[in-house]
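To: structure desk
From: M.T.
Subject: fold request, one chain
Message: Could you run this one when you get a chance? Sequence is below, nothing fancy, just the single chain.
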Amino acid sequence: RSDPEQFARVQAHYAESMTHMADAAAAHDVPLALLTVPTNLRDWLPNVSFDGLEGAADAEWAEALRRGRRALLQQRWEEARSALEGAVARNPEHAETHFWYAQSLERTGDAAGALAQYRLAKDLDYNPFRAHSAFNATVRGLAAARQGRVVLVDAERAFEAAAPGGAPGFSLLLDYVHPTLAGNRILAREVFQAVRDAGALPAPTGSRDFHTLAVSYDGRAYDERLNLDLQVTLCGLFCINHQYDAAIRCGQWIEELLRDHRDQVQGAAEIPAQAPPLVRAAVPVLTRYQVAVAKDLLQAGGAREELAAADADRADFYAEWCPYGRY
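Reply: Done. Structure tokens follow.
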């Protein structure tokens, strides 16, 4: 993402690969459905943001960003919006600034503006785990150019239509891209309808309500929140990707699940007596760090010293428990 020429080559290679796939399917008379990729916009901070400013310009942007984030913490939404609009104008390439601006737009009732800013935050991320808008545009363009031969399943737009405010978050996605049970139902519905409308399905032989048939391996109704192995995996993923609030919430839930709801746990061959070491280490360290960040933004007394100590503890945590998150 930091090298425009490399990004252009990757985009061209992706378009060529998709075109080759469509050509091969057509040559063998195989119906083809192409899906755009929905991503977590609302609840996933950009992993790496580029700051190309220096000197006074950098200081002015940083102060505008701090004012905006402080106002968000204090629920002064209009003030936050004004400050963050100025921060975006000063540093338009900084992904995280767009994310916080989106939060302020959402809080002030501008859902369309918030969605546009969330998309920019995703596309400007220098560690682009999430599908870039350019790649989804390639899929749409290829399907449009081959109408009648390629079916478009615009999953990205379907998720946005289903998400509160239009920006998908953890209600539809487990992490940055993998759907929840609710998200998978949307995907299944959209794919089924697209394939059916294209005439690629045989005549129906009966009906079944799949919304009532989600069961786990032991016959109980499946619940992602009760799947211990999944929750532990997600907590580690949140840590690696510096999604601190998500990691804290997930870790606290794992501890509560093992303490108060052991009889409901799913997805584990053996139920441990306590949360895994990474989870037990992450929750207090990341909580202290997030509290220190908030105090620093609010200009509390002694906040700078507290933040420095919390940041050192955070670095030690990553060195010991989460080396892949050291970036």
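Reply (cont.): The first helix runs from residue 4 to 27. Let me know if you need anything else for the meeting.
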